[in-house]
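I have been asked to look over a protein record a colleague put together. This is what I was given:
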Amino acid sequence: MADVLSSKQLKRLSEHKYSSQCSTILDPIMQIFWRWLVEQVPTWWAPNSITLTGFCINVFTAILLVWYSPDARQQPPAWTCILCAVGLFAYQSLDAIDGKQARRTNSSSPLGELFDHGCDAISTLFVTLSMCIALNLGVDPAWMLYQVYAAMGLFYVGHWQAYVSGTLKFGKVDVTEAQFAVMGIFIITAVFGSDFWSYKMPMVDLELKYIMCLSTTGIALIFTLIPTLKAIFVDGGIGRNGSTVAGTSVVFPMFSLLAIITIPVIIYQKSETSIYQHHPCLYLLAFGMSMSKITIKLIVAHMTKSELEFLDTIYIGPAMLFFNQYFNTILNEYIVLWMCLFYCVIDVLRYSTSVCCEICDYLHIYCFKIIEPQTNGAGAGATARVGNDQNTANTSRTRSGTGSKGKKSL
Protein backbone atom coordinates (compact mmCIF):
# COMPACT_ATOMS: atom_id res chain seq x y z
CA MET A 1 0.00 0.00 0.00
CA ALA A 2 1.37 3.42 -0.95
CA ASP A 3 2.21 5.84 1.86
CA VAL A 4 -0.48 8.38 2.66
CA LEU A 5 1.93 10.98 4.01
CA SER A 6 5.19 12.02 2.36
CA SER A 7 8.45 12.37 4.28
CA LYS A 8 8.12 16.15 4.09
CA GLN A 9 4.61 16.02 5.53
CA LEU A 10 5.76 13.78 8.38
CA LYS A 11 8.63 16.12 9.15
CA ARG A 12 6.35 19.16 9.27
CA LEU A 13 3.84 17.24 11.39
CA SER A 14 6.56 16.35 13.89
CA GLU A 15 7.29 20.09 14.22
CA HIS A 16 3.61 21.03 14.65
CA LYS A 17 2.65 22.82 17.87
CA TYR A 18 -0.96 22.90 19.02
CA SER A 19 -2.42 26.41 19.26
CA SER A 20 -5.91 27.34 20.43
CA GLN A 21 -7.91 30.24 21.84
CA CYS A 22 -10.70 29.20 24.18
CA SER A 23 -13.16 31.59 25.82
CA THR A 24 -16.37 29.60 26.24
CA ILE A 25 -18.72 30.25 29.15
CA LEU A 26 -18.73 26.77 30.70
CA ASP A 27 -15.16 25.63 30.10
CA PRO A 28 -13.62 27.46 33.09
CA ILE A 29 -16.24 25.86 35.36
CA MET A 30 -15.81 22.39 33.88
CA GLN A 31 -12.02 22.63 34.11
CA ILE A 32 -12.35 22.20 37.88
CA PHE A 33 -14.08 18.87 37.38
CA TRP A 34 -11.77 17.76 34.55
CA ARG A 35 -8.63 18.52 36.57
CA TRP A 36 -10.00 16.41 39.42
CA LEU A 37 -11.06 13.63 37.05
CA VAL A 38 -7.67 13.22 35.40
CA GLU A 39 -6.09 12.70 38.82
CA GLN A 40 -8.32 9.65 39.28
CA VAL A 41 -7.06 8.08 36.06
CA PRO A 42 -4.20 5.54 36.36
CA THR A 43 -0.96 6.72 34.79
CA TRP A 44 -0.70 3.59 32.63
CA TRP A 45 -3.86 4.54 30.67
CA ALA A 46 -2.59 6.04 27.39
CA PRO A 47 -4.13 9.35 26.28
CA ASN A 48 -5.20 7.97 22.89
CA SER A 49 -6.84 5.03 24.66
CA ILE A 50 -8.82 7.53 26.74
CA THR A 51 -9.91 9.32 23.55
CA LEU A 52 -10.84 6.02 21.90
CA THR A 53 -12.86 4.86 24.93
CA GLY A 54 -14.96 8.03 24.93
CA PHE A 55 -15.40 7.79 21.18
CA CYS A 56 -16.62 4.18 21.35
CA ILE A 57 -19.05 4.94 24.17
CA ASN A 58 -20.52 7.84 22.20
CA VAL A 59 -20.86 5.85 18.97
CA PHE A 60 -22.36 2.83 20.75
CA THR A 61 -25.08 4.83 22.54
CA ALA A 62 -25.95 6.69 19.33
CA ILE A 63 -26.24 3.45 17.34
CA LEU A 64 -28.63 2.13 20.01
CA LEU A 65 -30.91 5.09 19.32
CA VAL A 66 -30.65 4.50 15.56
CA TRP A 67 -31.49 0.83 16.09
CA TYR A 68 -34.73 1.63 17.91
CA SER A 69 -35.70 4.51 15.59
CA PRO A 70 -34.07 4.02 12.16
CA ASP A 71 -36.44 6.51 10.52
CA ALA A 72 -36.18 9.06 13.37
CA ARG A 73 -39.97 9.02 13.62
CA GLN A 74 -40.48 6.30 16.20
CA GLN A 75 -40.43 6.85 19.94
CA PRO A 76 -37.15 5.39 21.25
CA PRO A 77 -37.20 3.70 24.67
CA ALA A 78 -36.57 6.13 27.50
CA TRP A 79 -33.54 4.17 28.70
CA THR A 80 -31.78 4.64 25.35
CA CYS A 81 -32.11 8.43 25.68
CA ILE A 82 -30.77 8.33 29.22
CA LEU A 83 -27.90 6.15 28.01
CA CYS A 84 -27.17 8.66 25.22
CA ALA A 85 -27.02 11.50 27.74
CA VAL A 86 -24.67 9.52 29.99
CA GLY A 87 -22.61 8.43 26.98
CA LEU A 88 -22.24 11.99 25.73
CA PHE A 89 -21.16 13.18 29.17
CA ALA A 90 -18.60 10.37 29.34
CA TYR A 91 -17.35 11.26 25.86
CA GLN A 92 -17.09 14.94 26.80
CA SER A 93 -15.22 14.19 30.02
CA LEU A 94 -12.76 11.71 28.52
CA ASP A 95 -12.19 14.01 25.55
CA ALA A 96 -11.35 16.83 27.96
CA ILE A 97 -8.80 14.89 30.03
CA ASP A 98 -6.83 13.06 27.33
CA GLY A 99 -4.52 16.06 26.82
CA LYS A 100 -4.11 16.49 30.55
CA GLN A 101 -3.21 12.82 30.86
CA ALA A 102 -0.61 13.20 28.10
CA ARG A 103 1.13 16.05 29.88
CA ARG A 104 0.79 14.22 33.17
CA THR A 105 2.54 11.14 31.74
CA ASN A 106 4.96 13.06 29.50
CA SER A 107 3.56 11.35 26.40
CA SER A 108 2.55 14.39 24.33
CA SER A 109 2.86 14.08 20.54
CA PRO A 110 1.26 15.46 17.37
CA LEU A 111 -0.39 12.07 16.95
CA GLY A 112 -2.58 12.96 19.92
CA GLU A 113 -4.12 16.04 18.32
CA LEU A 114 -4.75 14.19 15.09
CA PHE A 115 -6.36 11.25 16.87
CA ASP A 116 -8.56 13.48 19.02
CA HIS A 117 -9.78 15.67 16.17
CA GLY A 118 -10.31 12.68 13.90
CA CYS A 119 -12.54 11.03 16.48
CA ASP A 120 -14.36 14.33 16.96
CA ALA A 121 -15.03 14.58 13.21
CA ILE A 122 -16.89 11.27 13.32
CA SER A 123 -18.48 11.83 16.74
CA THR A 124 -20.10 15.05 15.50
CA LEU A 125 -22.11 12.94 13.05
CA PHE A 126 -23.32 10.51 15.72
CA VAL A 127 -24.13 13.17 18.32
CA THR A 128 -26.17 15.24 15.87
CA LEU A 129 -27.94 12.21 14.39
CA SER A 130 -28.96 10.93 17.82
CA MET A 131 -30.18 14.42 18.73
CA CYS A 132 -32.36 14.45 15.60
CA ILE A 133 -33.89 11.12 16.63
CA ALA A 134 -34.61 12.46 20.12
CA LEU A 135 -36.30 15.51 18.57
CA ASN A 136 -38.35 13.26 16.26
CA LEU A 137 -37.03 15.20 13.25
CA GLY A 138 -37.63 12.26 10.92
CA VAL A 139 -41.12 13.65 10.34
CA ASP A 140 -39.41 16.46 8.43
CA PRO A 141 -36.44 14.90 6.58
CA ALA A 142 -35.32 18.22 5.08
CA TRP A 143 -34.82 19.73 8.53
CA MET A 144 -33.01 16.60 9.67
CA LEU A 145 -30.63 16.78 6.71
CA TYR A 146 -30.01 20.45 7.40
CA GLN A 147 -29.35 19.90 11.10
CA VAL A 148 -26.78 17.14 10.57
CA TYR A 149 -24.95 18.97 7.80
CA ALA A 150 -25.05 22.27 9.67
CA ALA A 151 -23.30 20.67 12.65
CA MET A 152 -20.71 18.85 10.55
CA GLY A 153 -20.24 21.89 8.33
CA LEU A 154 -19.57 24.05 11.37
CA PHE A 155 -16.96 21.57 12.57
CA TYR A 156 -15.33 21.67 9.12
CA VAL A 157 -15.36 25.48 9.02
CA GLY A 158 -13.74 25.59 12.46
CA HIS A 159 -10.80 23.54 11.21
CA TRP A 160 -10.76 25.48 7.95
CA GLN A 161 -10.15 28.57 10.05
CA ALA A 162 -7.36 26.74 11.89
CA TYR A 163 -5.85 25.81 8.51
CA VAL A 164 -5.88 29.50 7.59
CA SER A 165 -4.73 31.09 10.86
CA GLY A 166 -2.80 28.26 12.49
CA THR A 167 -4.91 28.58 15.66
CA LEU A 168 -8.13 26.78 16.56
CA LYS A 169 -10.48 29.40 18.00
CA PHE A 170 -13.61 28.99 20.11
CA GLY A 171 -16.46 31.39 20.75
CA LYS A 172 -18.29 32.26 23.95
CA VAL A 173 -20.88 29.58 23.16
CA ASP A 174 -19.22 26.57 21.61
CA VAL A 175 -18.79 22.82 21.88
CA THR A 176 -19.15 22.37 25.66
CA GLU A 177 -22.35 24.41 25.77
CA ALA A 178 -23.73 22.55 22.75
CA GLN A 179 -23.00 19.17 24.30
CA PHE A 180 -24.86 20.07 27.50
CA ALA A 181 -27.80 21.29 25.40
CA VAL A 182 -27.92 17.93 23.59
CA MET A 183 -27.76 16.10 26.94
CA GLY A 184 -30.76 18.17 28.03
CA ILE A 185 -32.66 17.15 24.89
CA PHE A 186 -31.98 13.48 25.63
CA ILE A 187 -33.20 13.80 29.22
CA ILE A 188 -36.37 15.70 28.24
CA THR A 189 -37.18 13.08 25.60
CA ALA A 190 -36.62 10.28 28.13
CA VAL A 191 -38.98 11.91 30.65
CA PHE A 192 -41.72 13.30 28.39
CA GLY A 193 -41.31 11.29 25.18
CA SER A 194 -40.46 12.52 21.70
CA ASP A 195 -44.04 13.78 21.26
CA PHE A 196 -43.09 16.58 23.64
CA TRP A 197 -41.20 18.25 20.80
CA SER A 198 -44.34 18.29 18.63
CA TYR A 199 -46.09 20.71 20.97
CA LYS A 200 -46.88 23.98 19.20
CA MET A 201 -46.04 27.23 20.89
CA PRO A 202 -49.20 29.34 20.53
CA MET A 203 -47.50 32.71 20.07
CA VAL A 204 -45.28 31.68 17.16
CA ASP A 205 -47.28 28.67 15.87
CA LEU A 206 -44.13 26.55 15.70
CA GLU A 207 -43.43 23.14 17.16
CA LEU A 208 -40.80 22.97 19.86
CA LYS A 209 -38.49 20.91 17.66
CA TYR A 210 -38.29 23.70 15.11
CA ILE A 211 -37.81 26.34 17.80
CA MET A 212 -34.90 24.28 19.10
CA CYS A 213 -33.38 23.96 15.62
CA LEU A 214 -33.80 27.66 14.86
CA SER A 215 -32.35 28.59 18.25
CA THR A 216 -29.23 26.49 17.76
CA THR A 217 -28.84 27.90 14.25
CA GLY A 218 -29.07 31.46 15.49
CA ILE A 219 -26.62 30.89 18.34
CA ALA A 220 -24.14 29.12 16.05
CA LEU A 221 -24.46 31.87 13.47
CA ILE A 222 -23.80 34.69 15.93
CA PHE A 223 -21.17 33.16 18.19
CA THR A 224 -19.34 30.78 15.85
CA LEU A 225 -19.97 30.95 12.12
CA ILE A 226 -19.78 34.72 11.52
CA PRO A 227 -16.60 35.20 13.62
CA THR A 228 -15.02 32.14 11.95
CA LEU A 229 -15.81 33.30 8.41
CA LYS A 230 -14.50 36.74 9.29
CA ALA A 231 -11.23 35.18 10.45
CA ILE A 232 -10.97 33.28 7.17
CA PHE A 233 -11.96 35.88 4.58
CA VAL A 234 -11.35 39.22 6.30
CA ASP A 235 -8.42 38.67 8.64
CA GLY A 236 -6.71 36.30 6.21
CA GLY A 237 -4.12 33.61 6.79
CA ILE A 238 -0.68 33.62 8.38
CA GLY A 239 1.00 32.46 5.19
CA ARG A 240 2.53 34.64 2.52
CA ASN A 241 0.11 37.28 1.16
CA GLY A 242 -2.59 36.13 3.59
CA SER A 243 -2.53 32.49 2.50
CA THR A 244 -3.03 29.37 4.63
CA VAL A 245 -0.37 27.70 6.76
CA ALA A 246 0.51 25.71 3.62
CA GLY A 247 0.80 28.85 1.48
CA THR A 248 -2.36 27.96 -0.49
CA SER A 249 -5.53 29.96 -1.15
CA VAL A 250 -7.82 30.43 1.86
CA VAL A 251 -10.80 29.85 -0.45
CA PHE A 252 -9.87 26.41 -1.74
CA PRO A 253 -11.21 24.33 1.23
CA MET A 254 -14.65 25.70 0.40
CA PHE A 255 -14.86 23.57 -2.76
CA SER A 256 -14.48 20.29 -0.86
CA LEU A 257 -17.20 21.41 1.56
CA LEU A 258 -19.59 22.41 -1.22
CA ALA A 259 -19.02 19.14 -3.09
CA ILE A 260 -19.63 16.91 -0.09
CA ILE A 261 -22.84 18.82 0.77
CA THR A 262 -24.22 19.17 -2.76
CA ILE A 263 -23.99 15.50 -3.75
CA PRO A 264 -26.34 14.09 -1.05
CA VAL A 265 -28.83 16.91 -1.66
CA ILE A 266 -28.96 16.11 -5.39
CA ILE A 267 -29.37 12.37 -4.76
CA TYR A 268 -32.06 13.10 -2.16
CA GLN A 269 -33.99 15.30 -4.60
CA LYS A 270 -33.64 12.98 -7.62
CA SER A 271 -34.39 9.66 -5.96
CA GLU A 272 -37.45 7.97 -7.51
CA THR A 273 -37.79 5.64 -4.52
CA SER A 274 -37.47 8.45 -1.91
CA ILE A 275 -34.50 6.63 -0.45
CA TYR A 276 -33.65 9.37 2.03
CA GLN A 277 -37.20 9.82 3.30
CA HIS A 278 -37.54 6.08 3.97
CA HIS A 279 -34.07 5.56 5.44
CA PRO A 280 -32.86 8.92 6.80
CA CYS A 281 -30.49 7.57 9.44
CA LEU A 282 -28.79 5.12 7.08
CA TYR A 283 -28.51 7.86 4.45
CA LEU A 284 -26.98 10.38 6.84
CA LEU A 285 -24.56 7.83 8.25
CA ALA A 286 -23.28 7.04 4.74
CA PHE A 287 -22.87 10.64 3.62
CA GLY A 288 -21.80 11.80 7.07
CA MET A 289 -18.88 9.38 7.01
CA SER A 290 -17.80 10.83 3.68
CA MET A 291 -17.84 14.31 5.18
CA SER A 292 -15.89 13.07 8.19
CA LYS A 293 -13.15 11.82 5.85
CA ILE A 294 -12.91 15.22 4.13
CA THR A 295 -12.68 16.94 7.51
CA ILE A 296 -9.96 14.58 8.72
CA LYS A 297 -7.97 15.31 5.57
CA LEU A 298 -8.31 19.04 6.27
CA ILE A 299 -6.94 18.50 9.79
CA VAL A 300 -4.03 16.52 8.36
CA ALA A 301 -3.37 19.29 5.81
CA HIS A 302 -3.27 21.84 8.63
CA MET A 303 -0.90 19.85 10.83
CA THR A 304 1.41 18.92 7.94
CA LYS A 305 1.24 22.39 6.37
CA SER A 306 0.35 20.86 3.02
CA GLU A 307 -2.17 21.47 0.26
CA LEU A 308 -5.68 20.08 0.74
CA GLU A 309 -6.34 17.77 -2.17
CA PHE A 310 -9.80 18.07 -3.68
CA LEU A 311 -10.06 14.61 -5.26
CA ASP A 312 -10.43 11.72 -2.85
CA THR A 313 -11.41 8.05 -2.88
CA ILE A 314 -14.31 8.80 -0.47
CA TYR A 315 -16.32 10.19 -3.39
CA ILE A 316 -16.61 6.66 -4.81
CA GLY A 317 -19.25 5.89 -2.16
CA PRO A 318 -21.67 8.70 -3.07
CA ALA A 319 -20.88 8.08 -6.76
CA MET A 320 -22.45 4.62 -6.43
CA LEU A 321 -25.82 6.20 -5.70
CA PHE A 322 -25.34 9.03 -8.16
CA PHE A 323 -24.59 6.79 -11.16
CA ASN A 324 -27.23 4.29 -10.14
CA GLN A 325 -29.77 7.11 -10.45
CA TYR A 326 -28.17 8.29 -13.70
CA PHE A 327 -28.76 4.86 -15.23
CA ASN A 328 -32.43 4.81 -14.16
CA THR A 329 -31.88 2.98 -10.86
CA ILE A 330 -30.80 -0.35 -12.32
CA LEU A 331 -30.04 -1.60 -8.80
CA ASN A 332 -32.18 -1.39 -5.68
CA GLU A 333 -31.30 1.95 -4.07
CA TYR A 334 -31.54 0.51 -0.57
CA ILE A 335 -28.86 -2.07 -1.38
CA VAL A 336 -26.67 0.56 -3.07
CA LEU A 337 -27.04 2.79 0.01
CA TRP A 338 -25.74 -0.02 2.23
CA MET A 339 -22.85 -0.51 -0.22
CA CYS A 340 -22.11 3.21 -0.01
CA LEU A 341 -22.09 3.16 3.81
CA PHE A 342 -19.89 0.06 3.91
CA TYR A 343 -17.42 1.56 1.46
CA CYS A 344 -17.24 4.95 3.25
CA VAL A 345 -16.62 3.33 6.65
CA ILE A 346 -13.86 1.11 5.22
CA ASP A 347 -12.28 4.06 3.40
CA VAL A 348 -12.23 6.23 6.54
CA LEU A 349 -10.73 3.40 8.59
CA ARG A 350 -8.16 2.60 5.90
CA TYR A 351 -7.00 6.21 5.66
CA SER A 352 -6.99 6.78 9.42
CA THR A 353 -5.08 3.63 10.33
CA SER A 354 -2.53 4.28 7.57
CA VAL A 355 -1.92 7.79 8.90
CA CYS A 356 -1.57 6.50 12.47
CA CYS A 357 0.88 3.76 11.45
CA GLU A 358 3.02 6.15 9.43
CA ILE A 359 3.18 8.68 12.26
CA CYS A 360 4.05 5.92 14.76
CA ASP A 361 6.84 4.78 12.44
CA TYR A 362 8.25 8.26 11.98
CA LEU A 363 8.05 9.36 15.63
CA HIS A 364 8.96 5.91 17.03
CA ILE A 365 5.98 5.89 19.37
CA TYR A 366 3.07 3.65 20.19
CA CYS A 367 -0.50 4.72 19.58
CA PHE A 368 -2.18 3.13 22.60
CA LYS A 369 0.67 2.50 25.06
CA ILE A 370 2.82 4.68 27.29
CA ILE A 371 6.09 2.79 26.97
CA GLU A 372 9.34 3.40 25.20
CA PRO A 373 9.50 1.24 22.05
CA GLN A 374 12.75 -0.49 21.14
CA THR A 375 14.75 1.49 18.61
CA ASN A 376 15.45 -1.52 16.38
CA GLY A 377 12.72 -2.57 13.99
CA ALA A 378 10.65 0.54 14.61
CA GLY A 379 9.38 0.73 11.07
CA ALA A 380 8.26 -2.87 10.96
CA GLY A 381 6.45 -2.57 14.25
CA ALA A 382 4.06 0.26 13.40
CA THR A 383 1.12 -1.99 12.76
CA ALA A 384 1.80 -3.83 16.00
CA ARG A 385 1.81 -0.50 17.86
CA VAL A 386 -1.65 0.29 16.65
CA GLY A 387 -2.58 -3.31 17.42
CA ASN A 388 -6.08 -4.62 17.57
CA ASP A 389 -7.47 -1.12 17.93
CA GLN A 390 -6.37 -0.01 14.47
CA ASN A 391 -9.88 -0.40 13.05
CA THR A 392 -11.00 2.40 15.27
CA ALA A 393 -8.01 4.71 15.07
CA ASN A 394 -9.20 7.90 13.39
CA THR A 395 -6.17 10.20 13.83
CA SER A 396 -5.02 11.81 17.04
CA ARG A 397 -4.56 14.80 19.32
CA THR A 398 -1.66 16.96 20.41
CA ARG A 399 -1.11 16.70 24.13
CA SER A 400 0.06 20.29 24.55
CA GLY A 401 -1.36 23.76 25.00
CA THR A 402 -4.24 24.58 27.32
CA GLY A 403 -6.09 21.27 27.29
CA SER A 404 -8.96 22.55 25.15
CA LYS A 405 -11.01 19.85 23.53
CA GLY A 406 -10.15 21.19 20.11
CA LYS A 407 -13.41 20.83 18.18
CA LYS A 408 -16.46 22.73 16.97
CA SER A 409 -20.05 21.47 16.59
CA LEU A 410 -23.59 22.54 17.11
